[in-house]
Each structure stands twice: as structure tokens, then as C-alpha cells.
């Protein structure tokens, strides 16, 4: 078990260091990349879901 008061100060300092370093274009690019990865994962999962439903229907 970690004691929270040991880890509060480093977490806060890392957040303080990260926020000014990240500029607006970097944040926008990161969000666009994140959305792209989500869309890719959904497109990759769709065939698996279709196969899963076909197997279920064939079993029923």
C-alpha cells in the first residue's frame, strides 16, 4: 500500500512541468491522433464483432 502523502508532491510537480511545455498545436495534434487511434481500433473491432455475431447465430 502506498501512502498518498508521499506521492502527492511529485505528481503535482510533473503536472506543473507538463502543462506549460505542451503548446496548443501539440495538444490539438495529440487529440487528433487520439481520435484517429480510436477510429482505427473501432474499424479493427468491427470485423471481429461481425464474426462473433455470425458464430452466435450459427450456434443458435
From TrEMBL:
Keywords, comma-separated and alphabetical: Membrane, Transmembrane, Transmembrane helix
Domain of life: Bacteria
Transmembrane segments: 39-59
Protein name per its UniProtKB record: Uncharacterized protein
Organism (species): Candidatus Electrothrix aestuarii
Lineage: Bacteria, Pseudomonadati, Thermodesulfobacteriota, Desulfobulbia, Desulfobulbales
Amino acid at each position: 500500500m502506498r501512502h498518498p502523502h508521499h506521492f502527492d508532491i511529485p505528481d503535482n510537480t510533473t503536472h506543473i512541468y507538463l502543462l506549460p511545455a505542451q503548446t496548443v498545436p501539440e495538444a490539438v495534434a495529440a487529440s487528433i491522433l487520439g481520435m484517429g487511434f480510436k477510429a482505427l481500433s473501432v474499424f479493427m473491432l468491427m470485423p471481429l464483432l461481425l464474426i462473433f455475431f455470425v458464430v452466435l447465430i450459427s450456434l443458435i
